[in-house]
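User: Can you model how magnesium ion sits in this protein?
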Amino acid sequence: MIIEARGLSRVFPDGTRGLDRLELSLGEPGFTLLSGRNGSGKSLFIRHILGLERPDEGGIYIDGVALERCLSLARSRIALLFQEPEHQILGITVREDAEFGPRAAGLKPKAYTALVDDALRSAGLAGMDNRLSSALSGGEKRRLALASVLVGKPELIILDEPFNDLDWQGASDLLAALLRLRKDGIAILIVTHDLEKCLAHADRLIVMEQGRVLRDASPAALWDELPALGLRRPRGGPSLLSGMTWLKAGQQAAP
Ligand SMILES: Nc1ncnc2c1ncn2[C@@H]1O[C@H](COP(=O)(O)OP(=O)(O)OP(=O)(O)O)[C@@H](O)[C@H]1O
Ligand SMILES: [Mg+2]
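Assistant: Here's the modeled complex, given as structure tokens:
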């Protein structure tokens, strides 16, 4: 699937230019990071991808088709995890939450039971079916939101600041779940300025500034420039990008 932003512009009534003729192509398999300073347009852009916001000019095209003409199909192929997982949790228990989508679509349990089992396992929630969703930790809630979108078999999962307020274990579990999904061929787009946790795994780093793409290259190619782009480099030097991952480093450092 190819998602293209063509000349995407969005100006707010107060004159703020949220997106400024943005040109970008996304959707290839792998791990992509979308980064940039606060207010650079990251969240606004991903809301446009799902048709949750309308541009003033330009548009989003999915495999060459204008988003307005394929919106429901696009929403089934692309999943968005909001920054606050609570907004996406609808079921009383973990299992009920993961089953919410297929039940709302009127499917019979035998059509979705195996799918829900798989999704809970992929998100690292196997065996937690009967836990109360409201009583989960922040990291577990985020993984439940992930399980619930996995049931819909998306081709691309977009996560907006998924590591916010997660502790080391929570972030590490979520990252491990995302890496397993990437191995299964699902494209992952992480929107974050917290490069520490995921840069080592990224195939591509896109940096936005003032509603446009400032850089779009491999993390290694952008390593030297990161501070000048307003991004903090992960500790460990460029060798971090070739093998010694944050996950492995974290595991070694853990008590
Ligand atoms: N509804 C709105 N009304 C006015 N301005 C808005 C609105 N939504 C977004 N903006 C502006 O558009 C710009 C881009 O916002 P956006 O939320 O996409 O930034 P971001 O890159 O996600 O930042 P952060 O890293 O802080 O999450 C900002 O200047 C923001 O103030
Ligand atoms: Mg944002």
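A couple of observations from the model: The longest strand covers residues 17-26. Confidence is low (pLDDT under 50) at residues 243-255.
User: Helpful, thanks.
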